[in-house]
Every structure is written in C-alpha cells, then in structure tokens.
Design a protein that fits this description.
It is built from eleven helices and seven strands. By secondary structure, the chain is of the alpha/beta class. The strands form two sheets. The chain has a five-stranded parallel beta sheet, with helices on both faces. Strands 2-3 form a two-stranded antiparallel sheet. The structure holds magnesium ion (MG).
Length: 210
C-alpha cells in the first residue's frame, strides 16, 4: 500500500552537519584541544543526555564550559555549537514534491534545542512540516520505543501507513519492527527513486504552464 504520511529524519537526511568547525571555534575560546572538544560534544554521552531531554540548554552549556574552559558567553556558545548544518538541496526539493502531492510530512529527529532553534531560524523549509517529534522534547532518543510511539500519535497513523526515511540502519530497523515502511537513506537519488516508486511525488509545475 502507498503510505499516508512520510516521516523524515533530519541529520544526514535533510541537512548535513559537521562538528569540526564548531569544535575549533569552541576550542579557540577554551583551554583544551579541538579534538578534546569534539570528543566531548560529538556523539558523546553528554550529547545523548542533552538530546534525550535529561538536561537543559543552560546545563549543557555549563558542562561544556567547565570541561573545556570555554570563556565566551552562552550566546556565543549557542552560535558556535549550532552553526554546523547545511541543507541537502535534493532532499529539501524531494520533501517539497511530497507535500505538493498532498501527503502530510513530519520530522523525527534525535536533536536538541540549540540545533533546532538554529535550523528553524536559518532554513525556511524546516517550517513546512505538519509536526515535529524531537528527542529532547519527547524525553527519548531513537531507537527507544517511546519516540516512535510519539510519532504515531502525532501523525495519527500506524504501521504501513507510515513511511520513515533515516540514514542509520538501527533507526530504520526499530521502525520496521513496528510495521512502518522504511527507506534507508544512502543517497538523495536512491531515496527519490524509492519515493517515486511508491507514487508519492508531484513534479513541480513547469514554468511555461498557464
Ligand atoms: Mg540522521
């Protein structure tokens, strides 16, 4: 059956990200190496606590500042930490094409307040979803059952009515175990081909049309 709703992961699906520059900018205002900063913030136990809603942004900043000697303000830290994203244009357009078809779309992301605030302010496409299931608000990260259930409740759909796109096999497997249809994002081209096969794409109107 054709899915009724499409749920997108955010990182490495709709936006690319790289903590290298953030680590350098934070380290430049602190007393540890760039590598040490990176180890502390990128896929770290601290980031997991932050993204699963176990600590506030102020607490996260406090812990990073204490560990790295960061001497800047919370506002400077927020800018350095969150300015790591670049939209993936083919995927932003793919999302727009799904919406033109009249299919509701949602975000399901392991993320945090600083990242989503930055993305919302910087990239207009992020406002074009029907709802947002964000780990730090739900209090659980993928692959916990709780966050998938939250997505089902928000979408008002379950099982094969849902199509989920994510770049991590474990996240996809947890969704497939709930009966969701899934696409493992390997490249925008492959994802687009699979979405097209499901009949979920509406081409953009040609510019010459009256
Ligand atoms: Mg991802």
């Amino acid at each position: 059956m054709a899915p009724r709703v499409v749920i997108f992961d955010l990182g490495k699906v709709l936006v690319d990200f790289d903590y290298t520059r953030a680590s350098s900018r934070i380290a430049a205002r602190g007393n540890v190496s760039r590598e040490a900063v990176r180890k502390f913030i990128d896929h770290s136990p601290l980031l997991v606590r932050y993204e699963s809603g176990q600590m506030t942004t102020a607490q996260f900043f406090g812990e990073v500042a204490a560990a790295t000697g960061f001497g800047g303000t919370a506002e400077e830290f927020a800018e350095f930490f969150a300015d790591i994203f670049i939209p993936i244009p083919e995927m932003v357009e793919l999302h727009a094409a799904v919406r033109r078809k009249g299919i509701p779309t949602f975000i399901l992301s392991n993320t945090n307040e600083l990242a989503t605030g930055h993305i919302r302010r910087s990239f207009p496409f992020f406002s074009d979803f029907d709802g947002y299931v964000l780990s730090y608000q739900v209090g659980a990260i993928k692959t916990a059952e709780k966050i998938y259930r939250a997505a089902e409740e928000m979408a008002g759909k379950s099982g094969a009515e849902l199509l989920f796109i994510d770049d991590l096999p474990a996240n996809i497997a947890a969704a497939a175990a709930r009966g969701w249809q899934v696409i493992l994002q390997e490249s925008p081209e492959k994802t687009r081909a699979q979405i097209a096969k499901l009949g979920l794409l509406q081409p953009a109107p040609s510019s010459g049309a009256v």
